[in-house]
Each structure stands twice: as structure tokens, then as C-alpha cells.
């Protein structure tokens, strides 16, 4: 029996949480693997008692710096005491001088994105710029500390190789239809009330918390042109975030833009939606749209394809790799082109059906079970 140690303490939002919520149950289902998991207390409570899963007494203190220091100092002894065969570091940073072979899961493209650094400078976010540079330096060194680095897409694996010269293996993240489409998790009551008001309008969906690199400004700037193109039909942009509650990335610029463009009435901010409730939202909307200017995988694209939504996405190599023919693409900083692509989808039932059919086909390619099989096989090879 192989013993794995999965360090997921860095997961706090978005794709990191989606990864752990799906991978840990699939690891538990394998009878040839025992896994010790380090995750936050809140996330641990979601899993209950899973067979062949134990939890490490490793806590984080002092933010990212404190977590990194704690991992570097405490993890080696934990790995030895648990008699772990392989360490899987799931938070972009590897353990230096790991006593066992180590797989690094790298999934943060901000460290390599020139667009993100330019965006921070233009916003005057110099503290965040320095912080990202420092973290990027540690992330870059981590690729040399790990025995093998895995990226969630070939596009990002190629980007990491250009950045460091290190060969990186691409293993797509997955999708679990049975887990995602559970029927017993309705939308939160307040979110449902806000959503019901959009009845009869064209519903554009964007699933994300507020961050700069999701490029909200381009999406908001597209709304006036889209309103004109589709008049008299109403247009509503459905967001799974709330600008007023954003802390890590202040959303004042997005709020000001809503007022300047006079589109506040077209934007419905539902706030954070539990993962198990998201399928209700996808299935009740008309088009999925993402203007992100950097990505490593983008789980919502797979969720949208599985939910039967046509997709309009910024023209990134990652988006083309994940969606292939299931999306129309636009230049990532061009709101007029974004509006044109959405209007094309809405005004052509034939095009919309083609995108939905392509999405159904493409969505079948993503499997968390397959992902875990590949990671376990990689670990088995390293532990010999």
C-alpha cells in the first residue's frame, strides 16, 4: 500500500478548493493508497470520515509567509512519522529538501503573466506587485526543488517550461458529473431572490470571485454595446461575487465603472454560491462568458459545457485547449468584440446549438477519476 501526503493548506478559494473537494474523495475510493491530508479546518469538516484518509495536525499561522515557514519546518518530520512515500504539494510552493519524492502541482499563472504585472502598476498596487514578485521567485525555485511538476493544462505547462527551463507534465483537471449535479442543494434563499428578478432577460453568467486578472472591466464595458445589439430584449450579467465584499482585490474601479457606464441595473451580484448549488445557476442561464486575461485551467468552463451552455471566452491558449470548438473567442481586452461574439451566439440558434453540442462532447474528456489515476501512477513511479 502506497502512502501519500497531500499538502493542500494553500487552498482558500476558487480552483484550489474545487481541486481538493474533488480529488480527496477519489483518493479515498482507491484501495491501494492511504492519504494523509493537510487542509484548513473548515474544508476538513466538509469531508466527514472518509476511508483511507487521515488528517495532518498541521496548522497555518501568519498568512502566506507563516504558512510557507510552517510547511518548510514542520513537514519533514510529519512525512517521516507518517512513513509517507510521496509528497504532493498542491499550493504552487514545494518543500525544499523533501525527505521523500515530491510532486508539485503548479496552477498559478499570475507569477508568469506580464498582463497581471502591468495591471497592478496601472492600478497603483505596488505592494501587491512586490508581493507577487516575491511569491513568484519562490514558485520558480519550487520547480527546481520538486522531483516532478504537474500543470493542469498543456498551455500552462509550456509557459512554465519557458519560464524556468524545467520540463513540466500536463495533467488536466477533471469533472465529476455525479458530484456536481447533486439535486439536494438549492441556491441560497437570498441569491435565489436576486436571481428571480432576472426572469425573461438574457442571462450571461460569470462564475468567479472578484480578482483583477478575471478582467471584469472588459466585461462591464461590453454591456452597453450588447444592450444596443439585442434591444429591446433585456440583458443581465449574473456574477457569483459581490463587489462590496471583496477584500483581497479592492473592487472600487469596477463599482465606479458600473456608475460611469450606467449599467448597475444590468449586473446582478449574487455573492458567493456554494459549490454544490452552482449547477442550478448554470442550467438557468443562457450564455457563459469569461474575459480573464490569464488562466491555468478554468474549471467553470468545464462546468458550463457539462451544463449545456454556449461559451464566449477570451482568446487564451488555455481557453482554446479546454473548450476547443465549444466556444467563440475574442481579444481579451476588446469589449466591442466580446459584445459581438455574445450577440452572434444569441442571434443564431444554429451556432448556439453547435457550441452546446461541441461542449457536451468536449466535457466528456475531463474526469477527476482519470486525473487521480495519473497522479497516483506518477507517485508510484517516483516511490520505486
Could you walk me through the main structural features you see in this protein, from its secondary elements to its overall organization?
- The protein is 48% helix and 14% strand.
- The chain has 384 residues and is an alpha/beta fold.
- It folds into two domains: 2-174 and 367-383, Rossmann fold; 178-363, Glycogen Phosphorylase B (Rossmann fold, 3-Layer(aba) Sandwich).
- Strands 3-2-1-4-5-6-7 form a seven-stranded parallel beta sheet, sandwiched between helices. Strands 10-9-8-11-12-13 form a six-stranded parallel beta sheet, with helices on both faces.
- Helix 9 (216-230) packs across helix 14 (335-347) and helix 12 crosses helix 15.
- The longest helix has 20 residues, at 126-145.
- The protein starts with a strand and ends with a helix.
- The mean pLDDT is 93.
Quick description:
By secondary structure, this protein is of the alpha/beta class. Helix content is 48%, strand content 14%. The protein is globular.
List the helices and strands and how they pair.
Layout (H helix, E strand, L loop, with lengths): L1 E6 L6 H15 L4 E6 L2 H7 L5 E3 L7 H19 L4 E4 L12 E4 L8 H10 L2 H20 L2 E4 L2 H11 L4 E2 L6 H4 L8 H8 L5 E5 L9 H15 L4 E5 L12 H10 L5 E3 L8 H7 L2 E4 L8 H8 L4 E4 L2 H7 L3 E4 L4 H13 L1 H15 L4 H16 L1
Parallel strand pairs: 1-2, 1-4, 2-3, 4-5, 5-6, 6-7, 8-9, 8-11, 9-10, 11-12, 12-13
Helix pairs in contact: 1-16, 4-5, 9-10, 9-14, 12-15
Amino acid at each position: 500500500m502506497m502512502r501519500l501526503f497531500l499538502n493542500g493548506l494553500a487552498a482558500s478559494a476558487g480552483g484550489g478548493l474545487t481541486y481538493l473537494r474533488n480529488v480527496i474523495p477519489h483518493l479515498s475510493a482507491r484501495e491501494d493508497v492511504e492519504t494523509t491530508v493537510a487542509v484548513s479546518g473548515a474544508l476538513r469538516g466538509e469531508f466527514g470520515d472518509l476511508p483511507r484518509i487521515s488528517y495532518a495536525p498541521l496548522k497555518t499561522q501568519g498568512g502566506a509567509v507563516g504558512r510557507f515557514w510552517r510547511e518548510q519546518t514542520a513537514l519533514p518530520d510529519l512525512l517521516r512519522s507518517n512513513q509517507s512515500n510521496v509528497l504532493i504539494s498542491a499550493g504552487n510552493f514545494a518543500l525544499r529538501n523533501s525527505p521523500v519524492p515530491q510532486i508539485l502541482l503548479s496552477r498559478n499563472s499570475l507569477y508568469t503573466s506580464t498582463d497581471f504585472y502591468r495591471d497592478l502598476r496601472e492600478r497603483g498596487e505596488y505592494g501587491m506587485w512586490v508581493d507577487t514578485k516575491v511569491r513568484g521567485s519562490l514558485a520558480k525555485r519550487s520547480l527546481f526543488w520538486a522531483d516532478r511538476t504537474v500543470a493542469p493544462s498543456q498551455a500552462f505547462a509550456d509557459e512554465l517550461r519557458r519560464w524556468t527551463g524545467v520540463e513540466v507534465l500536463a495533467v488536466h483537471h477533471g469533472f465529476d458529473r455525479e458530484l456536481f449535479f447533486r439535486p439536494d442543494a438549492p441556491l441560497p434563499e437570498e441569491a435565489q431572490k436576486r436571481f428571480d428578478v432576472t426572469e425573461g432577460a438574457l442571462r450571461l453568467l460569470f462564475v468567479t470571485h472578484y480578482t483583477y486578472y478575471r478582467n471584469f472591466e472588459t466585461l462591464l464595458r461590453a454591456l452597453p454595446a450588447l444592450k444596443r445589439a439585442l434591444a429591446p430584449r433585456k440583458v443581465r450579467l449574473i456574477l457569483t461575487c459581490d463587489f462590496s465584499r471583496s477584500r483581497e482585490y479592492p473592487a472600487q474601479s469596477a463599482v465606479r465603472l458600473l456608475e460611469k457606464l450606467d449599467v448597475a441595473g444590468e449586473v446582478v451580484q449574487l455573492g458567493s454560491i456554494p459549490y454544490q448549488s452552482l449547477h442550478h445557476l448554470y442550467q438557468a442561464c443562457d450564455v457563459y462568458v469569461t474575459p480573464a486575461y490569464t488562466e491555468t485551467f478554468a474549471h467553470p468552463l468545464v462546468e458550463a459545457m457539462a451544463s449545456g451552455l454556449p461559451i464566449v471566452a477570451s482568446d487564451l491558449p488555455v481557453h482554446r485547449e479546454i473548450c476547443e470548438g465549444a466556444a467563440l473567442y475574442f481579444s481579451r481586452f476588446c469589449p466591442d468584440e466580446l459584445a459581438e461574439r455574445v450577440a452572434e451566439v444569441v442571434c443564431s440558434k444554429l451556432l448556439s446549438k453547435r457550441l452546446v453540442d461541441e461542449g457536451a462532447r468536449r466535457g466528456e474528456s475531463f474526469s477527476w477519476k482519470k486525473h487521480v489515476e495519473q497522479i497516483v501512477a506518477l507517485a508510484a513511479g517516483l516511490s520505486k
